[in-house]
Amino acid sequence: MTSAATPAYRRLSVGERRSQLLGVALSLFAHRAPEDVSLDDVAEAAGVSRPLVYRYFPGGKQELYEAALRSAADELELCFAEPAVGPPTERLARVLDRYLAFVDEHDTGFSALLQGGSVAETSRTTAIVDEVRRAAAQQVLFHLGVPDPGPRLRMMVRTWIAAVEAASLIWLDEGKQPPAAELRAWLVDHLVALLTVTATTDHGTARAVEALLAREAADGPVGTLARRLGPVVGGAAHLL
Question: What's CA 230's distance to the chain center, in Å?
Fold first, then answer.
């Protein structure tokens, strides 16, 4: 009886091998904190030797982690890329859907990344994370139609980005409850509420909100929130 032939070993190019190792590292870092992943773990998961991993990442685990983080950051930045089509809040809802899917996929690694304190954390890793935050803020401002925001609006958007990060970490800690769709809807409402409050004291934000409302649909997130707020605001009429 003839045994099945063993598949021929295929030598990978330098680029292919590096991509393979990065992919394996990303998968490990996505589910375990950086300090819990060793080069031996990466080598074993990739089916290669430890010296081969060192050949591609001579800086060892730190270099591999930073390269994997850079790759994850590039992927995360793509989550915020959305065509300028349709009402702004509906665009941001689609962005948040992709963002929360990324958080879901990279749960433990995402927590380690944003909470800091990892033995692998350096000024370079911090800069990579900050770059993602800046890119996210720029995309939010783009969808709000504000190319040159004032300091109050910039601060408000950065505050919202920080709130999204915090909510994501709490969501993971709470066993991914409420469901992602409910969390996304709440985060969109949160942005609209922050915009509205800021608009009461900042002319630049007020103009942005006015332009935003003109592009929103009555049955979209803003219209739905306005109808839900009606009874709440009415209950506070005696304060006016």
Answer: 32
Question: pLDDT (tens digit, 9 = 90+) per residue, 89-108?
Answer: 999 999 999 999 989 988 77
The whole-number pLDDT of residue 65 equals 85
Q: What does residue 154 show for φ and ψ, rounded to 5 degrees?
A: -60, -45
**Which letter does DSSP use for residue 201 in this model?**
T
159: tokens are: 């505050």
Domains and CATH numbers, the chain: 14-71 (1.10.357.10), 80-231 (1.10.357.10)
The mean pLDDT of 218-226, rounded to a whole number, is: 85
Ramachandran sector of residue 8 (left: φ over 0; alpha: ψ -120 to 50; beta: rest): beta
Handedness of CA 188, 191, 192, 193 (dihedral sign): positive
| Integer Cα distance of 74 and 88 in angstroms | 23
Contact 208, 153 (CB under 8 A): yes
3-29: b or e for each residue (b if 16 or more CB lie within 10 Å)?
eeeeeeeeeeeeeebeeebbebbbbbb
